UniProtKB/TrEMBL annotation:
This is Acyl-CoA dehydrogenase family protein. Residues 140-231 form the Acyl-CoA oxidase/dehydrogenase middle domain. Its cofactor is FAD. Pfam families: Acyl-CoA_dh_1, Acyl-CoA_dh_M, Acyl-CoA_dh_N. Keywords: FAD, Flavoprotein, Oxidoreductase, Transit peptide. Residues 24-136 form the Acyl-CoA dehydrogenase/oxidase N-terminal domain. It comes from the Bacteria. Belongs to the acyl-CoA dehydrogenase family. PANTHER family: GLUTARYL-COA DEHYDROGENASE, MITOCHONDRIAL.
Length: 397
């Protein structure tokens, strides 16, 4: 009788053996981004978060460009042409360091660069994408307005043709990541022909981007308002290949896909902190990790963490195959961000009072995820997207 094959050892860091699904190149990209984040972000992130700043953001952007992390899933124009799974792995590692760092990369690549790459003219692509891929130019994406977040169809920012075909933009955008450090902004505005996207150099007269202060979430991230007062642009500043909400919504779907992975990075960091703390913290004469209630918490956290990673991986494979639907992205963002917050909150209970200290990453991740929960689609919006898909009935209005 043949003997049974020897089973691999149980790996607490990869209990489901998800790494077996990854190719050597996937692992190499993941490890490159993890090493960069460990060396360049983790030693400083608590101080950056406490001070509410991201110093040296332009240097960080150039470094991220040098490892191919900016616009990494795009082809050509200096972009890495990585797979969706590889991009997702990078997002996970970046957000394991901090959500603000992943947001920098996500807005640069999945929103600003993606919009130009998919909908821009060849001249726009050649002008901006190589420099953005290298991190020499930072981009931002202007869609959300002070009075129109979940309802962008009613945005007030508008663009009108004047003179020999020039465009003149007026309006306000709010909660714009990278805004005050960007060299280029992709701004969406109402026109006579419908909603159009515009490539706006941020040194254009009438453009300003005052930074938003007093945030208690995403503190290590540059967040701004965009102010457009009679910003005059040439006729070829408009993105020529799209009209209507399909443009910005397709960009958001691409960015939300990165969040599906990224949220699991924040959850993993908090989970790992809880495990290590539970093994070393002693109460009643032994480590708290030896008590049943603590082990129950850790087991439940591990189950949701690795289910979320499996979900992200599945969606990544679908994206690589050209089969990922926006409703499936909503499924992933709704589940993974919600579960990541719960993991962080449970980790905080294991750390007790130490859980609120910046000596540990848990509270920082938890507060960051409160922003991730509602940006690029609130919980309610993703629930309604899925509700419509399940019933065929539109409950948005």
């Amino acid at each position: 009788m043949a003997s049974s094959p020897k089973l691999p050892a149980f790996d607490p860091a990869d209990p489901l053996g998800v790494d077996d699904l990854l190719e050597p190149e996937d692992l190499a990209i993941r490890d490159t981004v993890r090493t960069w984040a460990t060396d360049r972000v983790l030693p400083h992130i608590a101080e950056w978060y406490e001070n509410g700043e991201l110093p040296g953001i332009r240097d960080l952007a150039r470094e991220l460009g040098s490892i191919g992390a900016l616009g990494m899933s795009l082809d050509g124009y200096g972009c890495a042409g990585a797979s969706a799974v590889q991009y997702g792995l990078a997002c996970l590692e970046l957000e394991a360091a901090d959500s603000g760092i992943r947001s920098l990369v996500s807005v640069q690549g999945s929103l600003a660069m993606y919009a130009i790459h998919r909908f821009g003219s060849e001249e726009q692509k050649q002008t901006w994408l190589p420099r953005m891929a290298a991190g020499e130019v930072i981009g931002c994406f202007g869609l959300t307005e002070p009075d129109h977040g979940s309802d962008p169809a009613n945005m007030r920012t508008h663009a009108k043709r004047e003179g020999g075909g020039d465009w003149v933009l007026n309006g306000r955008k709010m909660w714009i990541t990278n805004g005050s450090v960007a060299g280029v902004a992709v701004v969406w505005a109402q026109t006579e022909d419908g909603i159009r996207g515009f490539v706006v150099p941020t040194d254009s007269p009438g453009f300003s981007a005052p930074e938003i202060k007093h945030k208690w979430s995403l503190r290590a991230s540059v967040t701004s308002e965009l102010v457009l007062d009679d910003v005059r642009l040439p006729a070829d500043a408009v993105l020529p290949e799209v009209t209507g909400l399909r443009g910005p919504l397709s960009c958001l779907s691409h960015a939300r896909y990165g969040i599906v992975w990224g949220a699991m990075g924040a959850a993993r960091s908090s989970f790992e902190a809880a495990v290590e703390y539970a093994k070393s913290r002693e109460q009643f004469g032994r480590p708290i990790g030896g008590f049943q209630l603590t082990q129950a918490k850790l087991a439940d956290m591990a189950v949701e963490l690795h289910k979320g990673i499996l979900l992200a991986h599945h969606l990544g494979r679908r994206m690589d195959a050209g089969r990922l639907r926006p409703e499936q992205v909503s499924f992933g963002k709704l589940n993974n961000v919600r579960e990541a917050i719960d993991i962080c909150r449970t980790a905080r209970t294991i750390l007790g009072a130490n859980g609120i200290s910046l000596e540990y990453p848990v509270m920082r991740h938890a507060t960051n995820l409160e922003s991730v929960l509602t940006y690029e689609g609130t919980v309610e919006m993703h629930q309604l997207v899925l509700g419509k898909a399940l019933t065929g009935l539109d409950a948005f209005r």
